Amino acid sequence: MKWFGWKAAGREESRPALEGARSRFASGFGVGAVPRSYEAQVRSLYLGNAIAQRAVRLIAEGIGDAPLLGAPEILTLVQARSGGQALCASVAAQLLLHGNAYVQLLTDARGDVVELFALRPERVTVEPDAAGWPVAYRYGVGERTVRLIAEDPAGRPQVVHIKAFHPLDDHYGLGSLASAAGAMALHNAASAWNTALLDNAARPSGALVYDPGDGSSLSREQFERLRAEMDAGFAGARNAGRPMLLEGGLKWQPLSLSPADMDFAEMKATAAREIATAFGVPPMLLGLPGDATYANYREANRALWRLAILPLAGSILASLAQALGGWFEGAALSVDLDRITALAEDRERLWAQVGAADFLSAEEKRAMLGIAPVGVGDA
User: Fold this and answer.
1) What does the pLDDT average to over 84-96?
2) How many distinct structural domains can be found in the chain?
3) CA angle, residues 216, 217, 219, in degrees to nearest 5
4) pTM surpassing 0.85?
5) Do 350 and 233 share a structural domain?
């Protein structure tokens, strides 16, 4: 009998048909100047956006550093660094950005799993069978493609596919990067605009007016020479406030922007809040304007754990435990809530309530607190 996998008797015949897998390069969508593909969005938007990077790192590093509960041999596999990557943190970041995470289970000559490695999701393509169910995964790097089977002959998984919900796709999940791409493009454009204003003393450079009095105009050579001298001697932040010496017939006509035209701070803050919302991070934790009191910050940190970190960590750990169940009987992984500082007050309140419940037995109290029954796991 196969305790894991899709090969139980009669199960393949009862499964519904799925839509054929799409190309791995078709993920995401584009609006206006926002790039369509995932890799282009990462390069042009995410890598240069401090708000998005900080939001993803807050969640990914929280999951990567979270204390775990489980059998020692399973914890060793999950917490070990493979190729320098922290498994849980890498998987969390991939789910947030791409919506898919693929973990390869590497085995030794005896068939025992010895290492877990997270593959880059934009390089993976699902290979379905005639009914649309995944039977293999193709991992492409440049011109080279490696075929990884979904399960070995014993029904144990070789690749774990963890995906976020996608309402229109049977094989690939939907990441938050696609929905946040527009706000990230706006935030990056506002930053570039503010930088350009700063380089020009926060106002347009003005206009040189040539008025010799006889109605003549500058020749093309004079115009090009004057523009080159202006760019070299007076443009840029390092030349801000430098006095200008003008020849006969030239006068400087300064121009300026209205305060409303110059106020991009609110636009940037609005885009930043939208980015934070897309990734599920309270804006206060990203340094955005707001009521940054200690009490509000503490509540925001608690909300981050309750609404973002713990649900995503639960999905990742449950998928890994289910996959490892083919090698370790009764495999289970979970976050140790009693060791999370941000949730200390919640856990203290729960312990007090359960401890004061005289109508519960000791074993029922242990179960409510997530503690194993007496005698289980004592060895």
Assistant:
1) 94
2) 3
3) 125
4) no
5) no
